[in-house]
Design a protein that fits this description.
Elements (H helix, E strand, L loop, with lengths): L1 E5 L8 H12 L4 E6 L11 E4 L9 H10 L5 E5 L3 E3 L5 H11 L5 E5 L11 E5 L4 E4 L13 E4 H6 L7 H6 L9 E6 L6 E3 L1 E2 L2 E2 L15 H13 L4
Parallel strand pairs: 1-2, 1-4, 2-3, 6-10
Antiparallel strand pairs: 4-9, 5-11, 6-9, 7-8, 8-10, 12-13
Helix pairs in contact: 1-6
Length: about 240
Amino acid sequence: MRIIITTYDKHRNILEANKYMMDKFGGADLDVTILGFKKPSFDMGSWKFVSMGNYISVNNFSNNIMPFFSDFTDEYFILGNDDIVLTNKFNNEFLLEIIETVKKIPNFGRMWLTQTPLSFYGGTIIKSFGNYHIAEINQWADYRLSLQYSIWKTSYFKKYLLPNLSPWQWELRDSAKYDGAAILLPINNFVVSFGHIMKKGVMLDNWHKSIYGNEELYDDDIKAIKNIFKKHNLI
């Protein structure tokens, strides 16, 4: 399944840190496509890059990605985040279980791939795997269109791919409430866990620690990523 990651010029070389950990924790088989503007100035290996033209404003987020998705025909895809580093192995086994589950849900729209609690938006368990589960959030819940790491049904994503939306406007819309779509989340399991590198253009101190749990990168990985940051004048 394709992983689509959107970025912009300021974050384009942060992606090398992202790739470093994805290569380590996800392996070379991950099918990653970057939607950006200027091409990153590092060896992207097997990752693909699609330029969206010239960067104008974050407020053009939806406009920028429209041309790519107008020709996108995969039934499902994963939308990832650019300024992160994985702190755990990419859980392919659970991802396959998720894919098999959502294929049987006609009204499936989206599912978070990050760790979430059972109480999140009043989740109701719809599939149990013993110690972990898949739950559906309520129709009234906020962030039904969250851009955090998720698997999307392409037709559902395109339904809400409207002009002139920033990422924040995309997520905060109320139009997805009571739309009848099944928005899912994992309980006691996850496909990805990660540390967040930047916030409002400032590097966070705890970028090497998971924002979802106690996981933290080993010292050798922290050192390697700091060298990446130095190479791109990020620190």
